[in-house]
């Protein structure tokens, strides 16, 4: 084997005069460390995003909110809400699955870092915005 090139768990080898490379697989014995995988990230599922975007859309229509951002990290998924795109978020909707057996995995956090509402049911937690929307429409 004159030319060899490692590609992941395999090696491609070429002999002089061969048209196609030979593939040699590298077997990982049981008990040894498997190849590293990317760490799993917390994410909002389709139903959760739908509930959040429904509330977000109402405030956009009222002219209160203009932008949002989504972060998916190892321990938390965050939906950040902005009044303008060049500032810090005025609200954050967070999902922390590790807190699901304690205070609840969903929370709404204000600009100052205070938790405005926390619970197990996302739709119930998002109701914290209902009173704010009524004030916006009346004012």
Features:
single chain; 139 residues; alpha+beta; 2 domains; five-stranded antiparallel sheet; 3 helices; 23% helix; DUF2794 domain-containing protein; DUF2794
How would you describe the overall organization of this protein?
With 139 residues, this protein is an alpha+beta fold. The protein is 23% helix and 29% strand. The protein has three helices and eight strands, in the order βββαβββββαα. The strands form two sheets. A five-stranded antiparallel sheet has the order 4-5-6-7-8. A three-stranded antiparallel sheet has the order 1-2-3, with no helix packed on it. Strand 7 and strand 8 form a beta hairpin. The longest helix is centred in the middle third of the chain and has 16 residues. It is elongated, with a radius of gyration of 25 Å. InterPro entries: DUF2794.
Secondary structure: elements and pairs:
Blueprint: E1 3-7, E2 10-14, E3 22-25, H1 46-61, E4 67-72, E5 77-82, E6 91-95, E7 106-110, E8 115-119, H2 122-126, H3 128-138
Write a compact overview of the structure shown.
This protein has 3 helices and 8 strands. The protein has helices at 46-61, 122-126, 128-138; strands at residues 3-7, 10-14, 22-25, 67-72, 77-82, 91-95, 106-110, 115-119.
């Amino acid at each position: 084997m004159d030319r060899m090139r490692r590609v992941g768990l395999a090696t491609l080898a070429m002999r002089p005069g061969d048209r196609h490379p030979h593939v040699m697989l590298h077997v990982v014995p049981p008990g040894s460390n498997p190849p590293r995988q990317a760490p799993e990230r917390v994410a909002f599922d389709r139903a959760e995003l739908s509930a959040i975007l429904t509330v977000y859309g109402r405030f956009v229509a009222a002219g209160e909110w203009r932008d949002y951002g989504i972060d998916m990290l190892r321990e938390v998924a965050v939906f950040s809400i902005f009044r303008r795109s060049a500032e810090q978020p005025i609200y954050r909707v967070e999902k922390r699955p590790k807190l699901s057996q304690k205070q609840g995995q969903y929370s709404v956090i204000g600009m100052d870092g205070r938790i405005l509402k926390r619970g197990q049911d996302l739709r119930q937690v998002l109701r914290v915005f209902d009173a704010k929307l009524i004030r916006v429409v009346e004012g």
